[in-house]
Batch of 4 targets.
Target 1
Amino acid sequence: MVPSLFLLLLVAGAAAQGHDDAVARRTMEEFAGFPASDDGEGDRRAYALRVDSEGLQRQIDELASFSDSPAPSVTRVLYSDKDVQARRYIKGIMKELGLAVREDAVGNIFGRWVGHEAELGAVATGSHVDAIPFSGKYDGVVGVLGALEAISVLKRSGFQPKRSLEVIMFTSEEPTRFGISCLGSRLMAGSEELAQSLKRTVDNQNLSFVDAADSAGYKIHPEDLHDVFLNQDTYFAFVELHIEQGPILEKEGIPIGIVTAIAAPASIKVEFEGNGGHAGAVLMPARNDAGLAAAELALAVEKHVLDSGSIDTVGTVGILQLHPGAINSIPSKSHLEIDVRDIDEKRRNDVIEKVHQSAVEISKIRRVELSEFKIINQDPPALSDKAVINAMEFAAKQLGLQYQLMISRAYHDSLFMARISPMGMIFIPCYKGYSHKPEEYASPEDMANGVKVLALTMAKLSLE
Ligand SMILES: *[C@@H]1O[C@H](CO)[C@@H](O)[C@H](O)[C@H]1NC(C)=O
Ligand SMILES: [Zn+2]
């Protein structure tokens, strides 16, 4: 093991003579958060190693101005004019940084800093800049603009990557327009099912995905969708920087979260049907009330989730509709949508199986028909890669930043990148854990910490 990654970082590049050593050491200490040792090997020069927090904040504010709702809220939906403007803005920064910019058929944007062993798998980072209606300006954005600032920090430090470093802006992490979350990364990870369904997908204006993409300047021929798929060896590692979207780091006063696993949801639609009838005329023994069947199933979901024995298993009945929905009418139909999440796929799927058994039993006991029990999606959870976790921990330690190992309960493009690359995520605190609303906020200091940990993590992985 090398004595310090910083020596590598700082020795790199054409070190000019005559730079004040004491200044170099002080700057290095500021960046690293630990005393710099001088073992007398050659010339060292620290370039400006600080994160440009003001510049990053200015970019975040500028990007937030591309919005279809008034500030402080942000609305930026896939392939809208504002989304196109945001894309142009990101590509502009990539070009300014000297990155090689490429876009794939659906508009995933890649900015690559080519390493001196360019044939090796690259180290990638990135996130999304689309924003659900009336949300905030940090979700996803910190992982794109922050990643570009991390590249900038490394460039200013004189670092020379061995493996190429790449920043990715993913298309449509949010499901707002076409009901498909993580569209870009899901496709990159090789989802044949998605490649097929995108040919037929329409938005709520009945505008097809292909036509919407066309309006944003992406001419998609259905065969091109397969060109989005990436090989398993494209990336050596993928690391995403993101706001926590939860309250833990802020509450504990810990600046960095290192994500060890990403929980994944399974969604289920259920329908019960009964005979309905007049609320006064049909006597209780004669009823088969579809609403009560739904109520019982909702309680069964809670019971099975709690019975899993793990705090990481969560289940929610977020939609419960009754038909015809009149005070004097026995519900003849009920519709439930159930979301079950866990970081353990088997445990989550066991809960779903038990929910299914309960639905069948309830329908028998209450003499209603279980007319639908449909698993809408069942994405597998993902574990972070051990080597990537090690690199993130190494970086946080080098920087003297306290960190906490934690689970991501929301899911991210990283969930899909994990299918084609060793993956890890870095979380930073956000105000009260707020997200998807205008009050979303991360402090410049917390963002700077995240950028530094990301920069060092990528630098370390690049040299492996
Ligand atoms: C949506 O558009 C397609 C093709 O243009 C058309 O056939 C279909 O009827 C439309 N559906 C609705 C609900 O308007
Ligand atoms: Zn996000």
Note: The first strand starts at residue 74 and ends at 76.
Target 2
Amino acid sequence: MPVRYAACVVTAAKEAELVGANRPNRSRSRVVGRVLGLGAMGAALVAVLSGCVRTVGEVFGGFGWPEVGISDQSAQMYDLWVGAVITALVVGGLVWGLIFWCIIRYRKRGDELPAQTRFNLPMEVLYTLTPFLVIAVLFYYTVTVQTDADYLSPDPDVTVEVTAFKWNWQFGYQRDGETVASTTGTTEEIPVLVVPTGQTVQFLLHSNDVIHAFWVPELLFKRDVFPGPQLQTRFEITIPEGNQGAYVGRCAELCGIYHSMMNFEMRVVSPQDYAAYVAALEDGLSQADALLSIGQEPYAITTEPFTQRLAQG
Ligand SMILES: [Cu+2]
């Protein structure tokens, strides 16, 4: 070992010993104070950001998230995504800042070995606890949103039975557990799923052949649809009053040659129009005539039957 290097090691060891032995209690309490201060700042930041997630999301285009969506559940998912991205950016900014600060502040200034310190307990507590705090907050919000998105009311306002088959959809409108009216898509007519605003709508999903997946992009949600007598998946949404309209629905599971054309349309109407629509179907009206009877477009406006598209090439 070169003499100069050995001397440095001895000096450093002595310095470390001195630092460890003589560190004043005052400096330790100052570090603890800083840790507590940082924790308080973090808590304040979380509180401020949680109040303005929607605004930040709008400014930055949802950080890649499609849109806010049309259901209460999709709005929660959007807020979770934007909040998680903001948290990641804050943590990233802090880490990058500390890295560059260390690089500049403690850059090499000569050949003398700097004071060697170790076992900085407050610092170790800080970088152990902080990630746990971040994970705990993200975990809390994720579980909350997931629980709400998966929540099933024991007695939903509206229940619709969705049956998927190669390559179309059937929608059965239930009352007291019994299907009272249904519509089925054909190669000439896109099936239209009518649901009301302001009410809990529960979907009972089942397939007649292979695995499909029920997906309305604007709900920011999709759920697999399985075959088999006992296999039924469910999910529930509530759509606020201002989101009436027509939204395309798709199959999101590769189920066969015409999978990409297995579309439907979800028509969101007022509760009164929904009741009138189901009553019209019960009276024997076709899907188109029942839609016309509540002042809606009789045929799908967001997608077309696939036979036309096949014919067009
Ligand atoms: Cu499918």
Note: Residues 3-150 form one domain.
Target 3
Amino acid sequence: MVFRSNMSLALEQAREAAARGEVPVGAVVVAADGTVVSMAGNRTRELNDPTAHAELLAIRDACALLGVERLTDHDLYVTLEPCPMCAGAIVNARIRRLYYGAQDSKSGGVAHGARVFSHPQCHHVPEVYDGVSASEAEQLLVDFFAAKRGTGS
Ligand SMILES: [Zn+2]
């Protein structure tokens, strides 16, 4: 089942991010024919870059790889509800479908906060499917922040 395996790949990226000490979020860009174009996990700490969210890295990689500025007919799988910055990038990239896992009531920008896709200014609205493997994605985040508190860092 393509649907589930793409989110599994995103979860794998999230686990790898956690292993690097990054907030465990992973993203995968998939072409219309099901080909996985790019995968990424958060690298804000490693790159000293507050914009190095999984979604942005995956979108940048996919565009660079394909030599295009838009990912029309491509889908994005991400383990956590995108923040407003990433939701904006999803709009600009013309992502066809967005599949995401856990809800982010604190920093999310799709179902919470800025609700970027619902804003009248939004010029491209992807199809949105939430709650995909949500419990797994959420557990990764819970474990990561619990471990962080445990070490006092
Ligand atoms: Zn983001």
Note: The first helix runs from residue 2 to 19.
Target 4
Amino acid sequence: MKTVLEERKSSICGNRDRGISCERESVSGAVSQRACVYCGARVVLNPITDAYHIVHGPIGCASYTWDIRGSLTSGADTFRNSFSTDLRETDIVFGGAKKLTAAIDELMEKTKPSPKLIFIFATCIVGVIGDDVDAVCRSAEAKYGIRVIPVKAPGFAGTKSLGYRLACDAIMNLIRPHAKQHKPQKRFGVNILGDFNLAGEMWIIRGYLEQIGIPVISTITGDSSYKTLLQAPSATLNIVQCAGSSAYLAERMESEFGIKSVKVSFFGVEDTVNSLLNIAEALGRQEIMEKAQKFAEEQALQVLPIIEKYKPHLKGKKAAIFVGGGFKAISLIRQFNELGMEAVVVGTQTGKKDEYEVINSLVNSDAIVLDDANPAELERFMTEKQADILVGGVKERPLAYKLGLAFCDHNHERKHPLAGFEGIENFVKEIYTSINSPVWKYA
Ligand code: SF4
């Protein structure tokens, strides 16, 4: 295949070949679209609204801030700030631990409200020089009586998925000691895992659950706080929205706190309705099940006419999808099918084997399915398959525009919700407007 490196071929499936190589490190020199380990950890932890985040590394790593991950808050907005130890050559030679201690001291002295929770992200260079970040965190905890949690996430240590795991470990590190000490009483209600409240999406889902009669105990991590996270062990059920980032946390919470979990997706009519019903079923209460059925039916009936209105203008169009996780890609394929469109290229940064099997079962046999793609591959397959629109994130947007293709931002930078029944309307209108824009005639 032209423009495809030999080492990458096993991660790309077309025509009859459907086995895919995934869940492995990126091929050196392939210019992967995938984010690094540190970025994976930051995605999960950054939405904790009253946490302070210190990036222990060169200033470049700290460019990853709230501004490119716009999760919303109903309380504190501390998380919109970013702090860095700004490591330089001399620190790399003589070590950066003192600088990190000084950064924590400065934060404690100068910031208001006074920090209760600080995450220390150790990035690539710290992984190389070997600062004892654990020791610095332990001594800061002892000195100030607050939680200072290390997240040792050098970008080179693995894939973005490792970053997710490290973030989940950090959350467990936060809540476990409290749970051990206070032994929380079980309460009827759920934790929402893996929703980062982009454009207020978590509030939409929380609203649905509350209308059905399901209390939300804790949200991890969209619109969460130090205090609300500590309540998580008392929940009856975990609902896992972004499985890629949070399925591991759900497993840990099941083994340590006995909380069962159910995977959900609130993208598209089919997945939103099924998710509400699955949550109600998992909770095992008849009245909740009946309410969920009634609510889902009513909401679906309201949104279906919108789909029918736009469907004739979208039927037969071809979509390319490149997103973070497999679960979202699956929902998007279903959403395009609901609109009469076909997904001709489908890729993810961190999809798992079983997710790719579902993806393959949903697309036509000649669709291209690829893991951990790079720009050259995406451009090639979008052109070959004559895609009309690309759904992706900020790194994919220029690829679409360069090719004169419509684009839909389905990542953390967007400002309008795409989840839930409200999100379906936004999504359909955005796809319609973007594909049918007259601008593509002039590209
Ligand atoms: S952790 Fe490493 S790969 Fe990630 S942004 Fe920093 S330097 Fe780059």
Note: The mean pLDDT is 95.
